[in-house]
Amino acid sequence: MATCVVILYKNTKPINTVLDPGLILVIVLLITAGATQIIFNVFFDEFCVNVWVLCSDPYYVPRIMSMNVMYSAIFTFIYVMTCRNFLKSTPIDSNTLVREYKLAYNPFFWLLVVILVRVVDKLFGALGMKYIEVYWGNIADLSYLVLYSALLLHIKGVRNTIVVVVLFSLFSMFIYYPIIVSDVYEVNKGGVIKDLVFCLVFLSLVKYPGKLITPFRFFLGIVFLPIFLGAANFAEALLGGFPVTLLDLAIYVIQGYEIQMLENQAYILNGIENGEFGMLNGASYLDALIDIFYPSSGAVPPSEWYADVVTFGTDVESGFGFSFLAEGILNFGGWGVFPTAIFSAAILLMIRSILNWKISLMPVLYSYFVTLSYYVYRSDMMYVLKKIEFTFMSIIVLLVLYTVVKYVVYGVVRGASNDIDFVGSNH
């Protein structure tokens, strides 16, 4: 897998950013593989106090690891060959892009859009329109990030920008998500990390290409992130009254990128081989496509099905992290690594191609979509396609709202100006 990372990085230099979606996925897989080896060879007795399939039989760890290596290798080959032959990006004129973006996205107008979107969101919640509220929540989230990016463009200097980013992250973590967005005060680590990644990618593309995020900082950050996630999970367990020790902290940190996804894969493979449940033969992928055009079809995402299975039907309302590879195994058994690699490459190549779009929305779209690399690792096809669908729908809605707000404000200003002129003419 280390070889895959080196090949991928060398062949994606024309991308003009180290934050390449394919590179992120492969590194996450690499770190997860290393963490798995450490846990099962060093902390086996401390970690395996549960009923995981990976802990029950030494046969499954090397089997699942080999499937992940094969998945990574096939994905890397498809991704690199496509990038080299079809997705060679042209240099970005940063100054021109900044000027266009400042003209197209005025922070004042976007602040009004965010307020309007949030009011509508609360209205849907009060009326009990939960289904529409889910869709609208994505619009609210994206409008918040667009306002954020519009503000960042008007800040001069790297240091001032970093201060604003830190303050914004604290605001998001302790005020925006737990108080404004959520009905229950709960610190949203995932939301804050997503916002932080968004702003760093956006600034790297528009204001500081090649300067803000260097290869060294990128690899340092992607290694630090699971440490942060693991430490945060340990802190929540400690504050929740669970009996945890420093050894537990080490285990939490090592499994920061959720090696639970490998257990999901082992659980599915074990269930198929034992005849507990049969292969879907592509049915979940077909359901994911149907759900795009017919969202009320009643198709159950694999993550919800998995939650129902492992909790014996007691927690069917929630979805667990699942992973693309687990879905591939559920559909085709051991051969599932091939369609999983193909689908993963297709989705991340679509994200990669956004860098070639000559529109002012390009930095926002790419910055928002780049986190899909992680969702490809830990989610299912239906969730990822729905995320893509919601985002493009949100962009359309936000552009309409922005145009309406801008038209109304200019109309009010012109009306006030005419009234002043009229009053002045009477004197």
Q: Could you give a short account of the major beta sheet?
A: none
Shape: globular
Radius of gyration: 24 Å
Amount of helix: over 70%
> With helices defined by DSSP (H or I, 4 residues minimum), what is the helix count?
20
Please identify the structural class as seen in this structure.
mainly alpha
Query: What are the secondary-structure elements, in order, as H or E?
Result: HHHHHHHHHHHHHHHHHHHH
Oligomer: single chain
Question: Mean pLDDT score, rounded?
Answer: 79
- Estimated share of beta-strand residues: under 5%
Total number of strands:
0
How many angstroms separate the termini?
81 Å
Which parts are unreliable, with pLDDT below 50 for 5 consecutive residues or more?
A: 11-16
Write the layout of secondary structure elements.
Layout: H1 2-11, H2 21-42, H3 44-47, H4 53-56, H5 60-86, H6 94-104, H7 107-126, H8 130-152, H9 158-181, H10 189-206, H11 215-239, H12 246-254, H13 260-273, H14 283-293, H15 302-310, H16 324-332, H17 337-353, H18 362-369, H19 372-378, H20 381-425
Helix pairs in contact: 1-2, 1-5, 2-5, 2-19, 5-17, 7-8, 7-20, 8-10, 8-20, 9-10, 10-18, 11-12, 13-16, 14-20, 16-17
